[in-house]
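Appendix B. Raw example, untouched.
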Amino acid sequence: MTTTITLVQGDITRQSVDAIVNAANSSLLGGGGVDGAIHRRGGPAILEECRKLRASRYGRGLPTGRAVATTAGRLDARWVVHTVGPVYSEQEDRSDLLASCYRESLRVADELGARTVAFPAVSTGVYRWPMADAARIALGTVRSTPTSVEEIRFVLFDDRAYEAFARAKSEGDEPAG
């Protein structure tokens, strides 16, 4: 089976998919950017499940590069897959942690039986990951990760993000040679 990768400019909280990936912080208790938008639009059911996760398996928070699912609340999705991206560092290569966010999110989506998944550009907001590099890592990782997901949709918030992902996608679509 082939996985289709699509790019959309818009609001990830408005997507109709099986699973929406949340660029969460390790506390799982909401925050700014994508995380805050998902919690606001999805409503209190998401936060309630996140609190239960913190009280059980993730007392110290969700580790960077890992992923866990909750209900999607009022979102037009069945689940939210929360993943914690790394903060960008010029001194330390953390690209393996960023790639892990995408691999782990797809692993969780597969366990749930999700066929359509919407991803944001993880770590590119307050975590300051350069957009072009984030796009290269994200697309390269989802292309090389075996999954039963039929459509991976990158939902990019603005022109700059969409253009960076479109460039990275077209570079990856070219035949090697």
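End of appendix B.
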